[in-house]
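Tutorial handout. Part one gives the primary structure; part two gives the three-dimensional structure as tokens.
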Amino acid sequence: METSAAYLQMLQALLPPGAAWSRDPQAILTMVLGGIADGLAQVHTRAEGLIAEADPRTTLEMLPDWERVLGLPDACTGVPETIAGRQRLVHARWTARGGQSAAYYTAVAAALGYSITISEHQQATCESPCTAALDPPPWHHAYEVNAPAVTVAELDCVAGGCDEPLRTWGNQALECALTRLAPAHALVRFVYGGD
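Part two.
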């Protein structure tokens, strides 16, 4: 139905009967209707293309609009190098449900390619076992993200300066993503070299 010929046939079918409404391919009326049919076919094709653009996994033309609406790229994700990478990032942000459980944060880290565990602190009460840690109240809203050791850089003894650290470690992408998702009242500590 999206072809010009199909639209021309539909337009001619709407004409009243009679000699004045010629359906001859060389008639001026047929040529006018053919131009209208071409326009209708183009609109139909663009409308079908809009279906693909409405899905972040298949969008091309509207990808910058999807990214703008979802706040991408951000400081945590950076800019993916490929269109497919950008589409995956948009889709992941669009379908993210969120949460505040350890399982959710572990899944977010896994999506970034990291295997982590989370340790939570429990406030000591009079019903706590005698062997329990005496975590003061502020630690009740803190948790630790245990991530594999990642060494980012070591000081170059020849070219390094006096004010540079001997070694830095951590994972900025992981820390940025999990800190951004953390509840406002929570303190997130990253422990590298753990589980």
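Part three, for discussion. DSSP finds six helices and five strands in the chain. Strands lie at 117-120, 142-147, 151-154, 167-169, 187-192.
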